[in-house]
Specification:
By secondary structure, this protein is an alpha/beta fold. About 50% of the residues lie in helices and about 20% in strands. It is built from 5 helices and 4 strands. Helix 3 crosses helix 5. The longest helix has 14 residues. The protein is globular, with a radius of gyration of 14 Å. The termini are close together.
Amino acid sequence: ELPALRKLSSLAQLFEAEIHVYHLYTEEETPDGAKAEAFQKLVRAEYPESSFSFRMIPYTDLQHGLNELMIYTKADLLAMSPQKRNLFQRLFNPSQTQAMAYQTVKPLLAV
């Protein structure tokens, strides 16, 4: 995720924008608060010139949840980091980023 945030950080600085980082997880997943906090500290140390906020949100339908989040936060752009997947994952699990490209109500940037 850090390479994607590096690209976003550079773009956000041009527009003096804040970056909101959301980790959406299913109810079956248990988010690791210590890992999340360590990630936040790493990002803030790595990119001190950028403004970040972090939040973990449970969801049942990713596409619907992201669209609602975009409306609620009045975001201008949705940036997603496509996950690396092997052949079987690509065959049986569709890309969430690609699916959002067809469903989002705002522009989508895949980094």
